[in-house]
Every structure is written in structure tokens, then in C-alpha cells.
Amino acid sequence: MADLYLALLHHPVYDKNGAIVTTAVTNMDVHDIGRLARTFAVRGFYVCTPVPTLRRLVTRILRHWETGPGSVYNATRKEALATVRLAEDLDGAIADVERETGSLPRVVATSARGGPDRLSFGRLRERLAKPGRPELLVLGTGWGLAREVLARVDDLLEPIGGCGDYNHLSVRSAAAIMLDRLRNGR
Amino acid sequence: MADLYLALLHHPVYDKNGAIVTTAVTNMDVHDIGRLARTFAVRGFYVCTPVPTLRRLVTRILRHWETGPGSVYNATRKEALATVRLAEDLDGAIADVERETGSLPRVVATSARGGPDRLSFGRLRERLAKPGRPELLVLGTGWGLAREVLARVDDLLEPIGGCGDYNHLSVRSAAAIMLDRLRNGR
User: Fold this and answer.
1) Sheet hosting strand B135-140, strand order edge to edge
2) Which domains does chain A have, with CATH numbers?
């Protein structure tokens, strides 16, 4: 099986007016997506932010659960947060995956917007089921990944789609659905 | 199609030591599951808590997004939170569904634990695809729904299952995966 990695980008992403911003790291994202990563055999989950103070904040959260009071309070959370890693940006995550696996990952961006040539969940699941280059799934915060990120990735994953045209899921919900589809079929 | 409803119970649920407790309402649950409900055509999402102060808190959150500053700031959130309703407990949610639809819902509890005679996602999806009694999917907070709830429901839904035996998803993640499976197959 090819290794699966996740990266959650806090920059460059859009705000609701289409301006490029840096969003704050949300504690709940780290926990929820860490638990998903542990559940669905993601080898590493990169929280990417260019803000040193926010990287320090995440380090403190991780320390709390790894060796601090949290490690005794809830061992399953410790296990989930062991998947979490820090990076300044997407390049930092890519470099770290390459260092760990010896090969450059294929970078797959996610977006709630559709478009031509989207990679289907089925096709990505097939790639993951065979030995091959690691796959790095990139999730955006705010109102989604900036065009400059989408322009440089290897693939764009198809949007999730619900029962109508409402497509405003939280990144936590989107990550849950994507990982379930990639690991449990359809 | 049969109507689908959700209920998020804050009592009676277990804490990590197996004691029955009332958990606090989490703002992020209301938002994330409200957005999921809107995406996946859930007719009503009941936040159930016996604590009047917490029901008032949710009412204030809803008002902020419905008619307050939030309604102008983010119209998609207003739309999502329009699915949210309040109830004291499961009975309150059941009664409200019956009032709205004219028939008593089938109550389907969710649990991370497996066991005999679990209702499969495929079977529940089939029930939803046909006209029939409304279905009320019950989600627990804390460490899961108390036995007294599980004992009185019509069905227990099969657990989600990941790539190993780790099964500690957040209720937000579990709701996302369940609704995607029920609406988008498998």
C-alpha cells in the first residue's frame, strides 16, 4: 500500500471576500483530524502555519496530551495526536514526507468546487491500494486553498457533494468523509 | 423518501469511567452537524440537553446567526443553523418529529461498539430511499449513549470501523461519515 499523508494549510487560503489570508490554528481541527488520521491509517498529519506562535501553541497542545496531564487522562487521545506534525508550509510537509519515505509524494489538493479533470475518490483509492509514491492530501482552512496552491499540485480531488448544491462543510467534516471514502470504498 | 432526523444527546451518556453524566453543549457540534444536516438533507437536527442554561446558550447562538450579526456575516451558516432545534431529551425530539410528520419515527441509535443484530448502513439507506416512517438517528456525546437509551431504540446502527481497532472518532466526524454513507452509498 502507498503511504497516505495529510496536510492542513492555514496559508495561503481565502477569506470569505476572496482575499488571501492566514487563518488561526483551531484546536478542534488538530484533535478531530488527528483522531481521523489514527483511525484511517494516515502516516502523518501536518498542521501547516507560517506563524511561529501558532506552531508553538500546537507544540504545547501536543505536549499536554503526549507527556503532560492529558496522557494520563485519555490515552486514546495521546495515540491520535501522535500522528500530528508541524510544518511552516506545504513545502515543509512535502520535504518531510520525502525525508521519511525516500520519495516525493504526489500532492492532491481538495476543494469544495468542482471543475474539469478532477481525480475521483475511486481512482485515488486504487493508487493507495498499490505500492507506489506516497500521496499527500492537502486540506484548506478558511474559504479554501488559494489558486497558487491548486495550480502547483499533481491532482485535484473531486468535491464531496451532498443532496443539493449546499457545499459548506467544515474542514473537519470534509476530512472525515474523504478518509472514509478512501479507506472504506465508494 | 422517508424523512431523516438527527438527535445529539448530552444526557444520559457515559463519561470515560462509565458513569452516567450530562455533557456540556459544544458550540462546534452545533455548527458542524448543522452544516452536515443542511448538506445531507436532514429535516431537523435536535440538540438535546436537560440543562435550561445550555438550551438558552444554543438559542443565543442560533439567534446570532439567524437574525443577529452572523446572518449578515455568513449567510451559508444561517442556512445550516436553520436545521437546528432544541429538545430536553430524546422523548422531546421524538414527540416533535411525530408532531411534524404525523408518524412516530423509527429511532436508530449509533455506537462505536459492535454487537449482534446491528442495522447496516445499506439497509438504513434503503429504508430512507422509500416512503415510510421518519428515521431519527441518535448520536451520543461523551463516551457514548447510556445503556438505557440503547435498550429502548428500534435499531442499533453498525459501527463505522477504520483500518484497525482504534475507534475514537469525534461525534462530529462520526456524523459526517454516517450521513455521507446514508446519502452517497456504501
Assistant:
1) B84-87, B44-48, B4-9, B135-140, B106-109, B155-156
2) 4-184 (3.40.1280.10)
Judge: A166–B39 Cβ closer than 8 Å, yes or no.
yes
Check: CB of residue B91 under 8 Å from CB of residue B152.
no
- The closest of B4, B137, B186 to A122, measured between CA atoms, is B186
ipTM score assigned to the predicted complex: 0.96
Mind listing the pLDDT tens digit for each residue in A53-94?
999 999 999 999 988 998 888 889 999 999 999 999 999 999
Cα end-to-end span (Å), chain A: 18
Q: What is the pTM of this model?
A: 0.96
Q: Which residues of B touch A183 (CB under 8 A)?
A: 162-163
Q: Is B29 on the interface with A (CB under 8 A)?
A: no
What are the mean pLDDT values of chain B's consecutive 10-residue runs (186 residues total)? 97 96 96 97 98 96 91 90 97 98 98 93 96 97 96 97 93 98 87
Cα–Cα distance, A186 to A43 (Å, whole number): 22
Q: How many residues does chain B have?
A: 186
**Residues facing B20 on adjacent strands:** B14
d(CA B150, CA B159): 14
Residue the block writes with cell 503526549: A66
